[in-house]
């Protein structure tokens, strides 16, 4: 892994949206170069490339973020990216031909989220909250609004908005807990 | 100390898992966690939700960045090669039209007019020591030629300028001024062959002392070729 790859890895693990965006765009360009070779060389067409790039970049980011990706000096990043993209593409091909997939290493493409909650579970839990809850949480976490601004937007006092946010979080935490205990 | 107020308590929990509490208060917080199961559950749920939301928000940022990068196309692909080619042809056409139909601007022409007009105004009052009769005759003829050009009478200007161009004793600046005006007059009078030989003469005369803009040189060169083609 080169020093540039290491910097890319660190930026991808960053919580800073600007750093993360720039690093993701860089990663996307690299993955795209690899994906073109894989897809066009293995029964795919140009229209398949973007989907594979999107899936691969998100999977790589999840692996890095969750710690499942181990930095190894002797392994070039492109080799790892190629491995993930190839597995994703083979899965797509298998799905298309409706064949059972038994020999692929899922650990390369699937990554757990925080505290082993899968992303799909988290999204599902969020969707089960009320609309106002989703709005408050999205404004705070997605859009980066401060609580004063959220209160003003929703026509509430600041304390009321904070209470709403914490109650929504408690409900979300409860839903995620019950999902985890069901598994 | 653990706050009594519910909202303050939630904020206290948030401060804890965001590492904002001082060490002494962290110890109190951890004692509360160990002592009160309900408080522990609340803290756990808030932490789980916060982590999940942060993760989803970052994942959203990643997806958005991938989409941006994938939809980002280089200018050529965005505009389309065909449109670029058409724009290029239109631009070249406009440039050729400009070279063909725009008049040649002899930049120093205005200076010449001012100069010759000054001498002409002096007329017969000018002292013998200021201008020789020969110089006075040169300026008069040159100014008249410029006036003919300005009035759209290039054939009259040509007669004057050809006479001036034949003079032997002109300084290089005035010789080239006369030649450029003559060349311009030939072009205005649709005499491309004469214009061409005058341009060759100017180019062969060595250092170009009469200042002509590069675009005007291109115009002259192109208009000579254009007139030869169309006549």
Automatic annotation (TrEMBL), chain A:
Annotated GO MF terms: DNA binding; sigma factor activity
RNA polymerase sigma factor 70 region 4 type domain residues: 122-171
Domain RNA polymerase sigma-70 region: 26-97
InterPro entries assigned: RNA_pol_sigma-70-like, RNA_pol_sigma-70_dom, RNA_pol_sigma70_r2, RNA_pol_sigma70_r4_t2, RNA_pol_sigma_r2, RNA_pol_sigma_r3/r4-like, WH-like_DNA-bd_sf
Keyword annotations: DNA-binding, Sigma factor, Transcription, Transcription regulation
GO biological process: DNA-templated transcription initiation
Entry keyword Lipid biosynthesis: no
Domain of life: Bacteria
NCBIfam families, A to Z: sigma70-ECF
Family: Belongs to the sigma-70 factor family. ECF subfamily.
Protein name: Sigma-70 family RNA polymerase sigma factor
Organism: Larkinella terrae
Lineage: Bacteria, Pseudomonadati, Bacteroidota, Cytophagia, Cytophagales
From TrEMBL, chain B:
Residues annotated as transmembrane: 81-101
Keywords carried by this UniProt record: Membrane, Transmembrane, Transmembrane helix
Protein name: Tetratricopeptide repeat protein
Organism: Larkinella terrae
Organism lineage string: Bacteria, Pseudomonadati, Bacteroidota, Cytophagia, Cytophagales
């Amino acid at each position: 892994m080169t020093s540039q790859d290491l910097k890319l890895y660190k930026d991808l693990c960053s919580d800073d949206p600007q750093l993360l965006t720039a690093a993701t765009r860089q990663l996307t360009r690299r993955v795209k170069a690899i994906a073109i070779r894989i897809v066009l060389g293995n029964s795919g067409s140009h229209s398949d490339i973007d989907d594979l790039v999107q899936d691969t970049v998100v999977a790589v980011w999840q692996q890095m973020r969750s710690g499942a990706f181990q930095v190894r000096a002797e392994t070039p990043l492109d080799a790892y990216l190629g491995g993930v993209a190839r597995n994703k593409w083979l899965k797509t091909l298998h799905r298309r031909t409706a064949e059972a997939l038994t020999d692929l290493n899922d650990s390369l493409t699937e990554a757990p989220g925080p505290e082993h909650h899968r992303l799909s579970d988290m999204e599902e839990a969020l969707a089960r909250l009320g609309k106002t809850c989703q709005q408050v949480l999205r404004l705070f976490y997605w859009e980066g609004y401060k609580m004063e601004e959220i209160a003003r937007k929703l026509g509430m006092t600041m304390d009321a908005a904070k209470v709403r946010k914490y109650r929504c979080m408690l409900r979300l935490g409860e839903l995620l807990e019950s999902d985890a205990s069901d598994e | 100390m653990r706050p009594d107020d519910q909202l303050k308590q939630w904020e206290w929990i948030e401060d804890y898992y965001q590492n904002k509490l001082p060490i002494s208060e962290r110890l109190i917080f951890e004692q509360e966690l160990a002592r009160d199961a309900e408080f522990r559950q609340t803290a756990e749920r808030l932490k789980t939700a916060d982590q999940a939301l942060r993760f989803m928000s970052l994942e959203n940022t990643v997806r958005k960045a991938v989409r941006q990068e994938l939809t980002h196309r280089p200018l050529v692909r965005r505009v389309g090669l065909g449109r670029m080619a058409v724009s290029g042809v239109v631009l070249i056409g406009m440039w050729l039209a400009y070279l063909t139909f725009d008049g040649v601007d002899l930049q120093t022409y205005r200076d010449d007019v001012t100069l010759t007009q000054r001498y002409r105004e002096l007329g017969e009052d000018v002292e013998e020591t200021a201008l020789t009769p020969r110089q006075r005759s040169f300026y008069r003829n040159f100014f008249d030629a410029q006036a003919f050009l300005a009035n759209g009478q290039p054939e009259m200007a040509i007669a004057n300028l050809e006479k001036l161009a034949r003079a032997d004793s002109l300084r290089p600046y005035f010789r080239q001024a006369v030649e450029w005006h003559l060349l311009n007059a030939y072009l205005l009078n649709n005499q491309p062959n004469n214009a061409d030989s005058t341009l060759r003469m100017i180019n062969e005369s060595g250092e170009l002392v009469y200042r002509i803009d590069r675009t005007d040189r291109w115009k002259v060169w192109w208009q000579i070729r254009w007139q030869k083609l169309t006549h």
